[in-house]
Structure formats: C-alpha cells, structure tokens
C-alpha cells in the first residue's frame, strides 16, 4: 500500500465510525422521543377518562345536590321552629 492510501484509510475509518455512532444515537433518540410522545398521549387519555368522565361528574353532581337538599331541609326546620 502506498502512503496516500494509508493516510486515506486512517482518516476515513474514524470518520465512518463516528458517522455510524452518530446515526445510532440519533435513531435511538428518535425512538425514545416517539415512545415518550405515545406515552404522553396515553397518559392524557387515562387521566381524562379517570378524572373527568361524564359518569364521574354526574356522580359528583348527585352527591352535591343531596348535600344541598339536606342543608335546605335543616334550614327549613330551623326557620319553622324559630317562627312558632
């Protein structure tokens, strides 16, 4: 081999290795980012389903209405007993 070929090989091999390493890192980062995005979407769906479902909101509304009705009944009893 000539000196020029050895120099060319000495330069191109590390450059090719560096490019391969960089490509591998970028590919891994892209797959991790895609997984994180999918996980975030799933988390948002789970949170919305678990904490703000229509059924849950109706249940909370019914409980609040019952409590308010009990308070109203107590105030009515107090008002009637205070007037007489």
What does this entry look like structurally?
This protein has two domains: 1-39; 53-84. The mean pLDDT is 86. The longest helix is centred in the first third of the chain and has 49 residues, at 3-51. The radius of gyration is 35 Å and the shape is rod-shaped. The chain is mostly helical. The chain is 94% helix and 0% strand.
What's the order of the H and E elements? HH
Unreliably modeled segments: none
Q: Average pLDDT value?
A: 86
Give a count of the beta strands, DSSP E runs of length 2 or more: 0
* Number of structural domains: 2
The major sheet is characterized as: none
For the CA atoms, what is the radius of gyration? Answer: 35 Å
Please tell me what the overall shape is: rod-shaped
Global structural class: mainly alpha
From the N-terminal CA to the C-terminal CA, the straight-line distance is 118 Å
Q: Please work out how many helical segments DSSP would assign.
A: 2
Beta strand %: under 5%
- Approximately how much helix is present in the residues? over 70%
